[in-house]
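Retro notes
What went well: the complex prediction finally ran end to end.
Inputs used:
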Amino acid sequence: MGQPPHILVVDDHAQIRESVTRYLAKNGMRATAAKDATDMDAKLAAGHFDLVVLDVMMPGEDGLSACRRLAAEGAVPVIMLTALGEEPDRIAGLEIGADDYLAKPFNPRELLARIRSVLRRSSRGEPLAGKLAGRRVRFEHLVLDTDRQILVDDEQGEIPLTDSEFRLLVVMLERARMVLSRDQLLDLTAGRTAGPLDRTIDNQISRLRRKIEPDVLRPRIIRTVRNGGYCLATDVEEQA
Amino acid sequence: MGQPPHILVVDDHAQIRESVTRYLAKNGMRATAAKDATDMDAKLAAGHFDLVVLDVMMPGEDGLSACRRLAAEGAVPVIMLTALGEEPDRIAGLEIGADDYLAKPFNPRELLARIRSVLRRSSRGEPLAGKLAGRRVRFEHLVLDTDRQILVDDEQGEIPLTDSEFRLLVVMLERARMVLSRDQLLDLTAGRTAGPLDRTIDNQISRLRRKIEPDVLRPRIIRTVRNGGYCLATDVEEQA
DNA sequence: TGGAATTGTAGCGGTTTGTATCAGGCAACC
DNA sequence: GGTTGCCTGATACAAACCGCTACAATTCCA
Protein backbone atom coordinates (compact mmCIF):
# COMPACT_ATOMS: atom_id res chain seq x y z
CA MET A 1 0.00 0.00 0.00
CA GLY A 2 1.60 3.17 -1.13
CA GLN A 3 -0.54 5.47 0.95
CA PRO A 4 -1.55 4.92 4.56
CA PRO A 5 -5.01 3.37 4.73
CA HIS A 6 -7.94 5.72 5.21
CA ILE A 7 -10.50 4.72 7.86
CA LEU A 8 -13.99 6.17 8.32
CA VAL A 9 -15.22 6.09 11.93
CA VAL A 10 -19.01 6.33 12.30
CA ASP A 11 -20.36 6.88 15.81
CA ASP A 12 -22.85 9.29 17.30
CA HIS A 13 -20.75 9.92 20.44
CA ALA A 14 -18.36 12.74 19.73
CA GLN A 15 -15.98 11.54 22.41
CA ILE A 16 -15.60 8.08 20.92
CA ARG A 17 -15.22 9.48 17.41
CA GLU A 18 -12.42 11.75 18.49
CA SER A 19 -10.49 9.31 20.63
CA VAL A 20 -10.64 6.61 17.97
CA THR A 21 -9.64 8.85 15.08
CA ARG A 22 -6.83 10.30 17.13
CA TYR A 23 -5.57 6.86 18.10
CA LEU A 24 -5.67 5.63 14.50
CA ALA A 25 -3.90 8.74 13.26
CA LYS A 26 -1.18 8.24 15.85
CA ASN A 27 -0.66 4.74 14.51
CA GLY A 28 -0.03 5.64 10.91
CA MET A 29 -3.50 5.69 9.46
CA ARG A 30 -5.64 8.44 8.07
CA ALA A 31 -8.89 8.64 9.99
CA THR A 32 -12.06 10.60 9.33
CA ALA A 33 -15.16 10.77 11.50
CA ALA A 34 -18.86 10.74 10.65
CA LYS A 35 -21.65 11.25 13.14
CA ASP A 36 -24.45 9.20 11.55
CA ALA A 37 -25.37 7.17 8.50
CA THR A 38 -26.22 10.22 6.40
CA ASP A 39 -22.90 11.79 7.23
CA MET A 40 -21.21 8.50 6.41
CA ASP A 41 -22.77 8.39 2.96
CA ALA A 42 -21.65 11.92 2.25
CA LYS A 43 -18.08 11.19 3.35
CA LEU A 44 -17.95 7.98 1.35
CA ALA A 45 -19.09 9.78 -1.78
CA ALA A 46 -16.64 12.59 -1.24
CA GLY A 47 -13.46 10.63 -0.63
CA HIS A 48 -11.74 7.31 -0.77
CA PHE A 49 -11.83 4.95 2.22
CA ASP A 50 -10.28 1.55 2.82
CA LEU A 51 -12.45 0.52 5.76
CA VAL A 52 -15.46 1.68 7.79
CA VAL A 53 -15.76 1.34 11.58
CA LEU A 54 -19.49 1.46 12.27
CA ASP A 55 -21.41 1.74 15.55
CA VAL A 56 -24.55 -0.39 15.84
CA MET A 57 -26.56 1.98 17.98
CA MET A 58 -27.15 5.26 16.25
CA PRO A 59 -29.96 7.76 15.86
CA GLY A 60 -31.37 7.88 12.35
CA GLU A 61 -30.54 4.88 10.23
CA ASP A 62 -29.51 1.92 12.31
CA GLY A 63 -25.93 0.64 12.15
CA LEU A 64 -27.04 -2.80 11.09
CA SER A 65 -29.08 -1.37 8.25
CA ALA A 66 -26.21 0.83 7.09
CA CYS A 67 -23.88 -2.15 7.28
CA ARG A 68 -26.21 -4.22 5.14
CA ARG A 69 -26.14 -1.56 2.46
CA LEU A 70 -22.35 -1.34 2.47
CA ALA A 71 -21.94 -5.10 2.42
CA ALA A 72 -24.36 -5.45 -0.48
CA GLU A 73 -22.33 -2.98 -2.46
CA GLY A 74 -19.17 -4.83 -1.48
CA ALA A 75 -16.91 -1.89 -2.12
CA VAL A 76 -15.53 -1.38 1.37
CA PRO A 77 -15.01 -3.71 4.35
CA VAL A 78 -16.83 -2.97 7.62
CA ILE A 79 -16.03 -3.48 11.30
CA MET A 80 -19.04 -3.14 13.61
CA LEU A 81 -18.98 -1.73 17.12
CA THR A 82 -21.65 -3.04 19.44
CA ALA A 83 -22.43 -1.69 22.89
CA LEU A 84 -24.44 -4.72 23.78
CA GLY A 85 -21.97 -7.52 23.71
CA GLU A 86 -24.86 -9.91 23.58
CA GLU A 87 -24.43 -12.94 21.41
CA PRO A 88 -27.55 -12.52 19.26
CA ASP A 89 -26.49 -9.05 18.23
CA ARG A 90 -22.93 -10.05 17.63
CA ILE A 91 -24.01 -12.84 15.40
CA ALA A 92 -26.49 -10.61 13.59
CA GLY A 93 -23.62 -8.26 12.77
CA LEU A 94 -21.63 -10.96 11.09
CA GLU A 95 -24.55 -12.48 9.27
CA ILE A 96 -25.44 -9.11 7.89
CA GLY A 97 -22.10 -8.95 6.12
CA ALA A 98 -19.74 -7.18 8.49
CA ASP A 99 -16.16 -8.32 8.14
CA ASP A 100 -15.63 -8.23 11.88
CA TYR A 101 -17.10 -6.75 15.01
CA LEU A 102 -15.93 -5.57 18.42
CA ALA A 103 -17.85 -5.24 21.67
CA LYS A 104 -17.76 -1.93 23.51
CA PRO A 105 -15.98 -1.05 25.64
CA PHE A 106 -13.00 -2.09 23.57
CA ASN A 107 -9.26 -1.82 23.75
CA PRO A 108 -8.02 0.58 21.02
CA ARG A 109 -5.08 -1.70 20.41
CA GLU A 110 -7.44 -4.52 19.61
CA LEU A 111 -9.42 -2.35 17.23
CA LEU A 112 -6.18 -1.50 15.48
CA ALA A 113 -5.21 -5.17 15.26
CA ARG A 114 -8.60 -6.06 13.81
CA ILE A 115 -8.43 -3.24 11.29
CA ARG A 116 -5.02 -4.45 10.17
CA SER A 117 -6.30 -7.99 9.94
CA VAL A 118 -9.27 -7.05 7.79
CA LEU A 119 -7.15 -4.79 5.61
CA ARG A 120 -4.65 -7.56 5.05
CA ARG A 121 -7.44 -9.82 3.86
CA SER A 122 -8.96 -7.30 1.53
CA SER A 123 -5.68 -5.85 0.33
CA ARG A 124 -6.11 -7.12 -3.18
CA GLY A 125 -6.39 -4.25 -5.58
CA GLU A 126 -9.49 -2.30 -6.18
CA PRO A 127 -11.27 -2.30 -9.48
CA LEU A 128 -9.65 0.05 -11.90
CA ALA A 129 -12.57 2.18 -12.93
CA GLY A 130 -14.72 1.79 -9.83
CA LYS A 131 -18.36 1.16 -10.58
CA LEU A 132 -17.77 2.01 -14.20
CA ALA A 133 -15.39 -0.91 -14.73
CA GLY A 134 -16.10 -2.59 -18.01
CA ARG A 135 -18.83 -0.18 -19.01
CA ARG A 136 -19.20 2.51 -21.58
CA VAL A 137 -20.87 5.80 -20.77
CA ARG A 138 -21.96 8.66 -22.96
CA PHE A 139 -21.88 12.36 -22.12
CA GLU A 140 -22.34 15.18 -24.61
CA HIS A 141 -20.62 14.23 -27.82
CA LEU A 142 -18.34 11.65 -26.24
CA VAL A 143 -18.35 8.02 -25.18
CA LEU A 144 -15.88 6.79 -22.61
CA ASP A 145 -14.74 3.21 -23.07
CA THR A 146 -13.40 2.25 -19.65
CA ASP A 147 -11.84 -0.98 -20.86
CA ARG A 148 -9.71 0.64 -23.49
CA GLN A 149 -9.21 3.91 -21.62
CA ILE A 150 -10.17 5.97 -24.63
CA LEU A 151 -12.81 8.48 -25.54
CA VAL A 152 -14.75 8.10 -28.76
CA ASP A 153 -15.76 11.40 -30.27
CA ASP A 154 -18.86 11.31 -32.43
CA GLU A 155 -16.99 13.01 -35.21
CA GLN A 156 -13.29 12.93 -34.57
CA GLY A 157 -13.00 9.32 -33.53
CA GLU A 158 -10.75 7.92 -30.82
CA ILE A 159 -9.01 10.09 -28.26
CA PRO A 160 -6.53 8.27 -26.02
CA LEU A 161 -6.37 9.30 -22.37
CA THR A 162 -3.41 9.15 -20.06
CA ASP A 163 -3.81 7.39 -16.72
CA SER A 164 -4.39 10.50 -14.67
CA GLU A 165 -6.73 12.03 -17.20
CA PHE A 166 -8.71 8.81 -17.20
CA ARG A 167 -8.88 8.57 -13.42
CA LEU A 168 -9.97 12.17 -13.11
CA LEU A 169 -12.68 11.76 -15.72
CA VAL A 170 -14.02 8.57 -14.15
CA VAL A 171 -14.22 10.18 -10.74
CA MET A 172 -16.12 13.13 -12.15
CA LEU A 173 -18.46 11.03 -14.25
CA GLU A 174 -19.35 8.98 -11.19
CA ARG A 175 -20.25 12.22 -9.43
CA ALA A 176 -21.79 14.22 -12.22
CA ARG A 177 -23.25 17.59 -11.28
CA MET A 178 -21.54 17.53 -7.89
CA VAL A 179 -19.05 20.22 -7.03
CA LEU A 180 -15.79 18.54 -6.09
CA SER A 181 -13.03 20.38 -4.30
CA ARG A 182 -9.42 20.00 -5.35
CA ASP A 183 -8.79 18.11 -2.13
CA GLN A 184 -11.54 15.65 -2.88
CA LEU A 185 -10.38 15.15 -6.43
CA LEU A 186 -6.81 14.60 -5.36
CA ASP A 187 -7.94 12.12 -2.74
CA LEU A 188 -10.17 10.25 -5.16
CA THR A 189 -7.75 10.13 -8.06
CA ALA A 190 -4.41 9.77 -6.34
CA GLY A 191 -5.28 8.89 -2.75
CA ARG A 192 -3.21 11.66 -1.33
CA THR A 193 -3.77 14.96 0.40
CA ALA A 194 -2.83 18.27 -1.11
CA GLY A 195 0.09 20.43 -0.06
CA PRO A 196 -0.32 24.19 0.31
CA LEU A 197 0.83 25.10 -3.18
CA ASP A 198 -0.61 22.11 -4.94
CA ARG A 199 -1.82 22.92 -8.45
CA THR A 200 -1.88 19.35 -9.61
CA ILE A 201 -5.62 19.17 -10.13
CA ASP A 202 -5.78 22.50 -11.96
CA ASN A 203 -3.17 21.19 -14.29
CA GLN A 204 -4.91 17.91 -14.93
CA ILE A 205 -8.23 19.64 -15.48
CA SER A 206 -6.54 21.86 -17.99
CA ARG A 207 -5.09 18.90 -19.83
CA LEU A 208 -8.38 17.03 -19.77
CA ARG A 209 -10.33 20.02 -21.05
CA ARG A 210 -8.06 20.25 -24.02
CA LYS A 211 -9.21 16.77 -25.00
CA ILE A 212 -12.93 16.99 -24.32
CA GLU A 213 -14.09 20.59 -24.56
CA PRO A 214 -15.24 21.74 -28.01
CA ASP A 215 -14.28 25.28 -27.07
CA VAL A 216 -11.47 25.22 -24.55
CA LEU A 217 -11.75 28.94 -23.89
CA ARG A 218 -15.34 28.53 -22.74
CA PRO A 219 -15.59 25.13 -21.11
CA ARG A 220 -19.09 23.65 -20.85
CA ILE A 221 -18.50 20.11 -19.69
CA ILE A 222 -16.16 20.69 -16.80
CA ARG A 223 -17.19 23.90 -15.12
CA THR A 224 -14.99 25.83 -12.73
CA VAL A 225 -16.55 26.77 -9.40
CA ARG A 226 -14.59 29.65 -8.05
CA ASN A 227 -13.39 28.98 -4.52
CA GLY A 228 -15.11 25.61 -4.72
CA GLY A 229 -13.50 23.31 -7.20
CA TYR A 230 -14.80 21.74 -10.38
CA CYS A 231 -18.07 20.24 -11.52
CA LEU A 232 -19.02 18.00 -14.38
CA ALA A 233 -22.04 19.91 -15.68
CA THR A 234 -23.68 17.42 -17.98
CA ASP A 235 -25.82 14.31 -17.90
CA VAL A 236 -24.22 10.92 -18.07
CA GLU A 237 -25.97 7.90 -19.49
CA GLU A 238 -24.94 4.33 -19.79
CA GLN A 239 -24.24 2.93 -23.21
CA ALA A 240 -24.91 -0.61 -24.37
CA MET B 1 -20.39 -21.58 -4.23
CA GLY B 2 -21.01 -24.71 -6.21
CA GLN B 3 -19.75 -27.19 -3.65
CA PRO B 4 -20.51 -26.91 0.04
CA PRO B 5 -17.42 -25.50 1.74
CA HIS B 6 -15.07 -27.97 3.34
CA ILE B 7 -13.90 -27.12 6.86
CA LEU B 8 -11.03 -28.71 8.76
CA VAL B 9 -11.48 -28.69 12.55
CA VAL B 10 -8.23 -29.08 14.51
CA ASP B 11 -8.56 -29.67 18.25
CA ASP B 12 -7.07 -32.19 20.67
CA HIS B 13 -10.33 -32.69 22.54
CA ALA B 14 -12.29 -35.44 20.86
CA GLN B 15 -15.53 -34.14 22.25
CA ILE B 16 -15.14 -30.66 20.79
CA ARG B 17 -14.02 -32.06 17.43
CA GLU B 18 -17.08 -34.21 17.19
CA SER B 19 -19.65 -31.69 18.32
CA VAL B 20 -18.27 -29.01 16.03
CA THR B 21 -18.01 -31.19 12.95
CA ARG B 22 -21.49 -32.52 13.57
CA TYR B 23 -22.88 -29.04 13.97
CA LEU B 24 -21.23 -27.80 10.79
CA ALA B 25 -22.40 -30.84 8.83
CA LYS B 26 -25.94 -30.24 10.02
CA ASN B 27 -25.69 -26.71 8.63
CA GLY B 28 -24.74 -27.54 5.11
CA MET B 29 -20.97 -27.78 5.31
CA ARG B 30 -18.55 -30.59 4.90
CA ALA B 31 -16.45 -30.95 8.04
CA THR B 32 -13.37 -33.03 8.75
CA ALA B 33 -11.54 -33.36 12.06
CA ALA B 34 -7.83 -33.47 12.89
CA LYS B 35 -6.40 -34.11 16.35
CA ASP B 36 -3.14 -32.16 16.14
CA ALA B 37 -0.90 -30.17 13.82
CA THR B 38 0.64 -33.24 12.24
CA ASP B 39 -2.76 -34.68 11.53
CA MET B 40 -3.80 -31.32 10.12
CA ASP B 41 -0.90 -31.28 7.69
CA ALA B 42 -1.76 -34.77 6.51
CA LYS B 43 -5.40 -33.89 5.94
CA LEU B 44 -4.51 -30.64 4.17
CA ALA B 45 -2.14 -32.46 1.86
CA ALA B 46 -4.70 -35.15 1.10
CA GLY B 47 -7.64 -32.97 0.17
CA HIS B 48 -8.98 -29.53 -0.49
CA PHE B 49 -10.22 -27.34 2.34
CA ASP B 50 -11.81 -23.92 2.28
CA LEU B 51 -11.07 -23.00 5.89
CA VAL B 52 -9.30 -24.30 9.00
CA VAL B 53 -10.64 -23.98 12.55
CA LEU B 54 -7.60 -24.22 14.77
CA ASP B 55 -7.28 -24.56 18.55
CA VAL B 56 -4.49 -22.57 20.18
CA MET B 57 -3.68 -25.02 22.96
CA MET B 58 -2.53 -28.31 21.59
CA PRO B 59 0.03 -30.96 22.42
CA GLY B 60 2.83 -31.14 19.88
CA GLU B 61 3.12 -28.11 17.64
CA ASP B 62 1.43 -25.06 19.12
CA GLY B 63 -1.67 -23.65 17.45
CA LEU B 64 -0.08 -20.23 17.01
CA SER B 65 2.91 -21.75 15.30
CA ALA B 66 0.73 -23.83 12.99
CA CYS B 67 -1.33 -20.75 12.23
CA ARG B 68 1.76 -18.79 11.31
CA ARG B 69 2.74 -21.48 8.84
CA LEU B 70 -0.67 -21.54 7.23
CA ALA B 71 -0.86 -17.76 7.05
CA ALA B 72 2.57 -17.56 5.46
CA GLU B 73 1.48 -20.05 2.83
CA GLY B 74 -1.69 -18.02 2.36
CA ALA B 75 -3.57 -20.86 0.74
CA VAL B 76 -6.33 -21.28 3.29
CA PRO B 77 -8.02 -18.93 5.78
CA VAL B 78 -7.80 -19.73 9.50
CA ILE B 79 -10.08 -19.17 12.49
CA MET B 80 -8.37 -19.62 15.86
CA LEU B 81 -9.99 -21.01 18.97
CA THR B 82 -8.51 -19.79 22.21
CA ALA B 83 -9.31 -21.13 25.65
CA LEU B 84 -7.76 -18.11 27.28
CA GLY B 85 -9.92 -15.23 26.18
CA GLU B 86 -7.20 -12.87 27.35
CA GLU B 87 -6.63 -9.80 25.24
CA PRO B 88 -2.90 -10.19 24.67
CA ASP B 89 -3.40 -13.65 23.30
CA ARG B 90 -6.35 -12.66 21.23
CA ILE B 91 -4.36 -9.87 19.66
CA ALA B 92 -1.40 -12.14 19.06
CA GLY B 93 -3.70 -14.51 17.20
CA LEU B 94 -4.77 -11.81 14.79
CA GLU B 95 -1.34 -10.33 14.32
CA ILE B 96 0.04 -13.74 13.47
CA GLY B 97 -2.21 -13.85 10.45
CA ALA B 98 -5.38 -15.59 11.57
CA ASP B 99 -8.45 -14.36 9.75
CA ASP B 100 -10.54 -14.42 12.89
CA TYR B 101 -10.65 -15.95 16.33
CA LEU B 102 -13.17 -17.08 18.88
CA ALA B 103 -12.85 -17.43 22.65
CA LYS B 104 -13.83 -20.71 24.26
CA PRO B 105 -16.39 -21.52 25.39
CA PHE B 106 -18.16 -20.41 22.26
CA ASN B 107 -21.63 -20.56 20.82
CA PRO B 108 -21.63 -22.93 17.81
CA ARG B 109 -23.94 -20.55 16.02
CA GLU B 110 -21.37 -17.81 16.34
CA LEU B 111 -18.63 -20.06 15.01
CA LEU B 112 -20.85 -20.78 12.02
CA ALA B 113 -21.46 -17.06 11.46
CA ARG B 114 -17.74 -16.34 11.59
CA ILE B 115 -16.92 -19.16 9.22
CA ARG B 116 -19.48 -17.81 6.75
CA SER B 117 -18.11 -14.30 7.18
CA VAL B 118 -14.52 -15.32 6.51
CA LEU B 119 -15.53 -17.49 3.56
CA ARG B 120 -17.50 -14.65 2.06
CA ARG B 121 -14.58 -12.33 2.52
CA SER B 122 -12.02 -14.64 0.99
CA SER B 123 -14.19 -15.56 -1.96
CA ARG B 124 -15.19 -12.02 -2.78
CA GLY B 125 -11.99 -11.01 -4.48
CA GLU B 126 -11.45 -14.29 -6.23
CA PRO B 127 -14.11 -14.53 -8.90
CA LEU B 128 -12.87 -17.90 -9.99
CA ALA B 129 -11.92 -18.92 -6.45
CA GLY B 130 -8.36 -19.66 -7.46
CA LYS B 131 -9.65 -22.87 -8.90
CA LEU B 132 -8.69 -22.17 -12.41
CA ALA B 133 -6.79 -25.43 -12.24
CA GLY B 134 -8.02 -27.92 -14.78
CA ARG B 135 -10.37 -25.49 -16.46
CA ARG B 136 -10.42 -23.55 -19.65
CA VAL B 137 -11.29 -19.89 -19.73
CA ARG B 138 -11.95 -17.51 -22.55
CA PHE B 139 -11.05 -13.83 -22.71
CA GLU B 140 -11.12 -11.66 -25.80
CA HIS B 141 -9.88 -13.72 -28.71
CA LEU B 142 -8.07 -16.29 -26.60
CA VAL B 143 -8.75 -19.45 -24.66
CA LEU B 144 -6.37 -20.51 -21.92
CA ASP B 145 -6.00 -24.25 -21.49
CA THR B 146 -4.64 -24.61 -17.98
CA ASP B 147 -3.97 -28.31 -18.34
CA ARG B 148 -1.65 -27.92 -21.28
CA GLN B 149 -0.40 -24.46 -20.28
CA ILE B 150 -1.27 -23.21 -23.72
CA LEU B 151 -3.24 -20.37 -25.23
CA VAL B 152 -5.47 -21.01 -28.21
CA ASP B 153 -5.93 -18.05 -30.48
CA ASP B 154 -9.19 -17.98 -32.45
CA GLU B 155 -7.26 -17.46 -35.64
CA GLN B 156 -3.62 -18.16 -35.12
CA GLY B 157 -3.95 -21.40 -33.22
CA GLU B 158 -1.84 -22.56 -30.30
CA ILE B 159 0.53 -20.26 -28.41
CA PRO B 160 2.77 -21.98 -25.87
CA LEU B 161 3.46 -20.15 -22.61
CA THR B 162 6.52 -20.37 -20.42
CA ASP B 163 6.06 -21.17 -16.74
CA SER B 164 6.28 -17.61 -15.52
CA GLU B 165 4.11 -16.24 -18.29
CA PHE B 166 1.51 -18.84 -17.42
CA ARG B 167 1.61 -18.11 -13.70
CA LEU B 168 1.32 -14.40 -14.30
CA LEU B 169 -1.61 -14.81 -16.67
CA VAL B 170 -3.46 -17.13 -14.30
CA VAL B 171 -3.02 -14.73 -11.39
CA MET B 172 -4.37 -11.88 -13.45
CA LEU B 173 -7.28 -13.86 -14.89
CA GLU B 174 -8.31 -14.85 -11.38
CA ARG B 175 -8.42 -11.16 -10.47
CA ALA B 176 -9.77 -9.62 -13.61
CA ARG B 177 -10.35 -5.86 -13.50
CA MET B 178 -8.43 -5.51 -10.24
CA VAL B 179 -5.38 -3.31 -10.10
CA LEU B 180 -2.47 -5.44 -8.94
CA SER B 181 0.75 -3.87 -7.76
CA ARG B 182 4.10 -5.25 -8.82
CA ASP B 183 4.63 -6.37 -5.25
CA GLN B 184 1.39 -8.30 -5.24
CA LEU B 185 2.14 -9.86 -8.60
CA LEU B 186 5.62 -10.87 -7.57
CA ASP B 187 4.26 -12.29 -4.36
CA LEU B 188 1.50 -14.20 -6.11
CA THR B 189 3.58 -15.55 -8.98
CA ALA B 190 6.93 -16.17 -7.35
CA GLY B 191 6.24 -15.91 -3.63
CA ARG B 192 8.94 -13.38 -3.03
CA THR B 193 9.13 -9.69 -2.23
CA ALA B 194 10.57 -7.12 -4.58
CA GLY B 195 13.87 -5.35 -4.17
CA PRO B 196 14.10 -1.63 -4.80
CA LEU B 197 15.20 -1.89 -8.42
CA ASP B 198 13.16 -4.91 -9.32
CA ARG B 199 11.83 -4.74 -12.86
CA THR B 200 11.00 -8.41 -13.07
CA ILE B 201 7.26 -7.95 -13.39
CA ASP B 202 7.57 -5.20 -16.00
CA ASN B 203 9.63 -7.56 -18.03
CA GLN B 204 7.27 -10.48 -17.72
CA ILE B 205 4.30 -8.28 -18.57
CA SER B 206 6.15 -7.12 -21.62
CA ARG B 207 6.83 -10.69 -22.71
CA LEU B 208 3.28 -11.77 -22.04
CA ARG B 209 1.86 -8.84 -23.96
CA ARG B 210 3.83 -9.81 -26.99
CA LYS B 211 1.93 -13.11 -27.02
CA ILE B 212 -1.59 -11.93 -26.27
CA GLU B 213 -2.01 -8.33 -27.38
CA PRO B 214 -3.21 -7.81 -30.94
CA ASP B 215 -1.51 -4.42 -30.96
CA VAL B 216 1.46 -4.46 -28.62
CA LEU B 217 1.98 -0.73 -28.94
CA ARG B 218 -1.48 -0.08 -27.58
CA PRO B 219 -2.18 -2.85 -25.10
CA ARG B 220 -5.84 -3.47 -24.47
CA ILE B 221 -5.99 -6.64 -22.40
CA ILE B 222 -3.30 -5.97 -19.83
CA ARG B 223 -3.38 -2.31 -18.97
CA THR B 224 -0.70 -0.36 -17.18
CA VAL B 225 -1.76 1.71 -14.20
CA ARG B 226 0.86 4.31 -13.57
CA ASN B 227 2.06 4.24 -9.98
CA GLY B 228 -0.32 1.35 -9.41
CA GLY B 229 0.65 -1.75 -11.28
CA TYR B 230 -1.22 -3.69 -13.92
CA CYS B 231 -4.81 -4.62 -14.56
CA LEU B 232 -6.49 -7.18 -16.76
CA ALA B 233 -9.21 -5.04 -18.33
CA THR B 234 -11.53 -7.57 -19.90
CA ASP B 235 -14.22 -10.06 -18.99
CA VAL B 236 -13.26 -13.64 -18.30
CA GLU B 237 -15.70 -16.45 -18.84
CA GLU B 238 -15.46 -20.12 -18.18
CA GLN B 239 -15.35 -22.44 -21.13
CA ALA B 240 -16.92 -25.89 -21.22
C1' DT C 1 28.45 -31.73 -19.55
C1' DG C 2 27.05 -28.72 -23.29
C1' DG C 3 23.52 -26.15 -25.43
C1' DA C 4 19.02 -24.17 -25.62
C1' DA C 5 15.33 -22.04 -23.43
C1' DT C 6 13.84 -19.37 -19.75
C1' DT C 7 14.24 -15.85 -16.36
C1' DG C 8 16.37 -11.89 -13.82
C1' DT C 9 19.20 -7.41 -14.21
C1' DA C 10 20.86 -3.13 -16.24
C1' DG C 11 20.26 0.86 -18.83
C1' DC C 12 18.49 4.00 -22.52
C1' DG C 13 14.85 6.88 -24.10
C1' DG C 14 10.06 8.41 -24.60
C1' DT C 15 5.93 9.65 -22.13
C1' DT C 16 3.54 11.17 -18.34
C1' DT C 17 3.08 13.94 -14.39
C1' DG C 18 4.04 17.30 -10.52
C1' DT C 19 6.00 21.95 -9.56
C1' DA C 20 7.14 26.60 -10.47
C1' DT C 21 5.91 30.66 -12.62
C1' DC C 22 3.63 34.13 -15.18
C1' DA C 23 -0.43 36.12 -17.21
C1' DG C 24 -5.34 36.98 -17.29
C1' DG C 25 -9.87 37.49 -15.02
C1' DC C 26 -13.25 38.09 -11.47
C1' DA C 27 -14.66 40.37 -7.26
C1' DA C 28 -14.44 43.58 -3.73
C1' DC C 29 -13.38 47.92 -2.20
C1' DC C 30 -12.34 52.46 -2.32
C1' DG D 1 -14.66 53.55 -12.72
C1' DG D 2 -10.14 52.28 -11.31
C1' DT D 3 -7.28 49.65 -8.45
C1' DT D 4 -5.87 45.89 -5.62
C1' DG D 5 -5.68 41.17 -4.36
C1' DC D 6 -6.80 36.54 -4.89
C1' DC D 7 -7.94 32.76 -7.84
C1' DT D 8 -7.49 30.21 -12.05
C1' DG D 9 -5.47 28.93 -16.88
C1' DA D 10 -1.54 28.01 -19.35
C1' DT D 11 3.29 27.20 -20.29
C1' DA D 12 7.87 25.41 -19.28
C1' DC D 13 10.69 22.37 -17.08
C1' DA D 14 12.42 18.61 -14.28
C1' DA D 15 11.71 14.28 -12.23
C1' DA D 16 9.56 9.93 -12.12
C1' DC D 17 7.78 6.06 -14.41
C1' DC D 18 7.48 2.55 -17.75
C1' DG D 19 8.55 -0.10 -22.29
C1' DC D 20 12.01 -2.14 -24.57
C1' DT D 21 16.46 -4.15 -25.82
C1' DA D 22 20.52 -6.42 -24.67
C1' DC D 23 22.92 -9.31 -21.81
C1' DA D 24 23.93 -12.32 -17.75
C1' DA D 25 22.46 -15.98 -14.79
C1' DT D 26 19.91 -19.89 -14.21
C1' DT D 27 17.43 -23.98 -15.31
C1' DC D 28 16.25 -27.83 -18.11
C1' DC D 29 17.14 -31.54 -20.87
C1' DA D 30 19.50 -34.62 -23.77
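What we learned: Residues 136 and 145 of chain A are 5 Å apart (CA to CA).
What to try next: split runs per interface for comparison.
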